[in-house]
Write a structure and sequence with these properties.
- This protein is mainly β.
- The chain contains one helix and five strands, in the order E-E-E-E-E-H.
- It has one domain.
- It is about 10% helix and about 45% strand.
- A hairpin with a 2-residue loop joins strand 1 and strand 2.
- The longest helix is centred in the C-terminal third of the chain and has 14 residues.
- The model has no long low-confidence stretch (mean pLDDT about 85).
């Protein structure tokens, strides 16, 4: 985290057919902002039929990351309304973020769209 400045640093990581590509930069002394695109395809289960199908994703993602515990009450910041991801080892684990987003997509409600209808 010490190497992340206000100048955006680019990154790209791929797992399970999904790529997370974007930039991260320091917003305040303890908060970092990640702006990225989540893109790729995943095999999902249709919640109506139970059939497996492949769905393509391309969605923007903006995340806020804290260097340590984020205490909303002691912070005078406009970030109180956002969810903050806390990391404690002095580095941002982009692989963890990507896996969390993939699991979030898999847990969502999905309906297989019929082709050619």
């Amino acid at each position: 985290m010490r190497k992340i400045t206000q100048l955006p640093k680019t990154f790209s990581i791929t797992s399970d057919g999904i790529e997370l590509k974007g930039q991260i930069y320091r917003k305040t002394s303890k908060i970092f902002q990640m702006e990225a695109i989540l893109k790729g395809s995943l095999e999902l289960i249709c919640d109506i039929s139970g059939d497996l199908f492949v769905k393509f994703f391309e969605q923007p993602l903006v995340l806020y990351i804290s260097d340590g515990i984020w205490d909303i009450q002691s912070q005078n910041s406009r970030l109180d309304d956002f969810d903050i991801i806390e990391f404690f080892d002095g580095f941002v684990d982009v692989e963890y973020i990507l896996q969390s987003e993939i699991e979030s997509i898999k847990m969502d409600y999905h309906i297989k769209e019929e082709q050619g209808v």
